[in-house]
Amino acid sequence: MATEKRKRGRPKAFADKSEQNTNQSLDRAIDILECLASARGLTLSEVADRLDLAPATVYRALHTFESRRLTEIDPETQTWHIGPDLFRLGSAFLLRSSLVERARPVLRKLMDMTGETANIGIERDGEILFLSQVETQSNIRAFFQPGTRAPLHASGIGKALLSQYDRARIDRLLPDPRLEQFTMKTLFDKEQLLAELDLIHRRGWALDDEERTHGMRCVAAPIVDFTGEAVGGISVSGPSDRMPDARLTEIGNIVRDAAVDLSRRLGAPLRAG
């Protein structure tokens, strides 16, 4: 018996991203959710002011979301927050692959061995997207909420991944010769960055030396899958005084070995030597 062909589920104009193919009301609604996600509670007026929207528009959207448990309101402070069902929907992204699931024991071991917060991230749309972390118990620690983004050229995972890409792919992701500078240590000259990527490729780990945030360092290494392609990165982050120069090689080797362990869990071929 012949099975019915499954419909593609998208119109012929799917690739057309022009304004006529976007929904303005839906666009505003997503802006409201993103606004709430960027803060730890906002009043209706604060959301309206930040987005330059009419309070009545924000009110209707928030209450619609509340009815679907996508947002919730604190009755005492009258502040709005992201709701539990929005978290559930967002978590569906993590279920698309086994990367995060397989990374959890590796991240925990990495945190135990280094004493610093361990992270995992992937490249998405020219940035690093953090997926998960295991936090250190120290009072002062790095924190990257799942969904946080970071620049490729000024993050440990970003540079670890760039070191695995060919020049054509790097140029597509970083087309400008001068990159955004965040601190005095940011490698904003592309040629200098390329030289460091060669070093990273040879030794197997990358260093973000306060290049994104003053006082914070990050050591990272790339993760590869069964095809040998770099699919993400793993890192540890912490205050510079707990990650001094004298510890960097030790931490770098630990992170590199953790990345190899996770890569093997994803089916990466074993390397000789």
TrEMBL record:
Annotated HTH iclR-type domain residues: 23-84
Origin superkingdom: Bacteria
Pfam families (UniProt xref): HTH_IclR (PF09339), IclR_C (PF01614)
Record's keyword terms, sorted: DNA-binding, Transcription, Transcription regulation
Domain IclR-ED: 85-268
Biased composition (Basic residues): 1-11
Annotated segments matching region Disordered: 1-21
InterPro entries tied to this protein: GAF-like_dom_sf (IPR029016), HTH_MetabolicPath_Reg (IPR050707), TransRegBhcR (IPR054844), Tscrpt_reg_IclR_C (IPR014757), Tscrpt_reg_IclR_N (IPR005471), WH-like_DNA-bd_sf (IPR036388), WH_DNA-bd_sf (IPR036390)
SMART domains: HTH_ICLR (SM00346)
Record protein name field: IclR family transcriptional regulator
